[in-house]
Amino acid sequence: MFQEHGFSGFAVAGANRQHARMLFSNGLQRIELPGAELWLDHAWLPAAEADALLAALREQVSWEVHRIRMFGREVDSPRLSCWIGDPGTVYTYSRTRFTPRAWPAALMPVRGRLRDAVGEDFNSVLANRYRDGRDRMGWHSDDEPELGPQPVIASVSLGATRRFALKPRGEGTPLSLDLPHGSLLVMRGDTQARYRHALPGTARPVAERINLTFRRIQPAR
């Protein structure tokens, strides 16, 4: 049963209480991390649905190597990516501006299902394709101004299990999570303000992984 103090000692109060009840009732479990709000369902998509989605995204998404700025110069990002969204959901990260591509058919049901599970109307998604263990994502926060002060990020993982790492911006204890095929990780509240996250590379033989981070771009003022 849902309890307002039932998430590893965290109190759920105010406007967050309704969201907490929704997430808990939809199978997500609260992950303990001070100052953050993390929810995880290891098997959000049944295996057969996750398999079908992975195969469809390989074919339907316009995969490309994004050019990003690091240490004052432009470099190829160590993965394949695609920025997808509603018209007008332009996104800037790593000092690079991305115009959205149209939603592929395979993502439309996932978008609606996430709306029901998380209670957010996501209008965009960053798709990342990690071809093997050498592909990776460096330390960063999803804290761009167009995401708002407390963005909700819903991360769906497909394919090989990879380790997702978080570390505090100041003092504190880091956390690592293994995100398997079909899992859903939701980051809310002050998570982006207080923590950075990464998908480290690995020397172990590992198969392909596709990650989908759904988000909502705020309308320009």
Description:
The chain has one domain (16-215): Jelly Rolls (Sandwich). Helices cover 18% and strands 34% of the residues. By secondary structure, it is an alpha+beta fold. Strand 1 (29-31) and strand 2 (37-41) form a beta hairpin. The strands form four sheets. Strands 1-2-13-10-15-8-5 form a seven-stranded antiparallel beta sheet, covered by helices on one side. The protein has a four-stranded antiparallel beta sheet with strand order 9-14-11-12. A two-stranded antiparallel sheet has the order 3-4. Mean pLDDT is 90; it is low at 1-13.
Please give the structural blueprint:
Blueprint: H1 16-25, E1 29-31, E2 37-41, H2 47-60, E3 67-70, E4 73-76, E5 80-85, E6 91-93, E7 96-98, H3 108-118, E8 124-130, E9 137-140, E10 153-159, E11 162-168, E12 175-179, E13 184-188, H4 191-194, E14 195-199, E15 209-215
Antiparallel strand pairs: 1-2, 2-13, 3-4, 5-8, 6-7, 8-15, 9-14, 10-13, 10-15, 11-12, 11-14
β-strand amount: 25-35%
Bulk shape = globular
Contiguous uncertain segments of 5+ residues: 1-13
Helix content: 10-25%
CATH topology: Jelly Rolls
Number of helices: 4
* Number of separate strands: 15
What kind of sheet is the major sheet?
7 strands, antiparallel
Rounded radius of gyration (Å): 17 Å
For CATH, the homologous superfamily is named as: Alpha-ketoglutarate-dependent dioxygenase AlkB-like
Spatial arrangement of strands, main beta sheet: 1-2-13-10-15-8-5
User: Average pLDDT across residues?
Assistant: 90
Supply the helix-strand structural class: alpha+beta
